[in-house]
Amino acid sequence: MSSPSASFFERVLPREANNEYRGSRIALYTFYLLMLPLTFRSFVHFLTNDSGVNAIASIIRFPGDPDPNVVIYMYSALWGSQQLVMLLLYYLTIARYRSLIPLMYATMVIENAFRLVVGSMHPMTERHFEHTPPGAYGTVPMLAIAVVMFVLSTRWSADAPKR
């Protein structure tokens, strides 16, 4: 097991993945709470007929023959499948490998940063939506939460919880 003086790199990528979490309890409990919206989001994108594109994100249906919405839904469902893979890793981390929680927060930081990059590379206007989608409000706060929790998850002390 790594000591409280372990390098920052070893706190994010420990030599041994185990169930001994040494970071802040706030980061641990926030990780648990984040699983609720992430689980909902992942299953909606993967399982619903429109992948949540129209029903939740309120993206308009596009006209055309063949129907371009089929392609949009398929790619959104593929994105949902990727989200489910990450969700599986998050739940495995909770169950067996809590020492990897800092790494999982790092993936959340990267994902949300990429969402902002993609949104600026391929901007959608209000003409694409019936109303503002939840992702428009949630990405920046989620990025901020993930950054703060990442930092807290890597701050170890000698009396930090081990489980």
Can you walk through the features of this model?
The protein is mainly α and 163 residues long. The protein has one domain. It is 60% helix and 0% strand. Helix 2 packs antiparallel against helix 3, helix 2 runs antiparallel to helix 5 and helix 4 runs antiparallel to helix 5. The chain is elongated and about 60 Å long. The two termini are 13 Å apart. The mean pLDDT is 92.
Encode the helix/strand succession as letters.
Answer: HHHHH
Number of E-type strands: 0
- How much of the sequence lies in strands comes to under 5%
Oligomeric form: single chain
Report the mean per-residue pLDDT as an integer: 92
Residue ranges: pLDDT <50 for 5 or more in a row? none
The number of helical runs is 5
Distance between the termini: 13 Å
The major beta sheet can be summarized as: none
Radius of gyration (Å): 18 Å
Helix share bin: 55-70%
Structural classification: mainly alpha
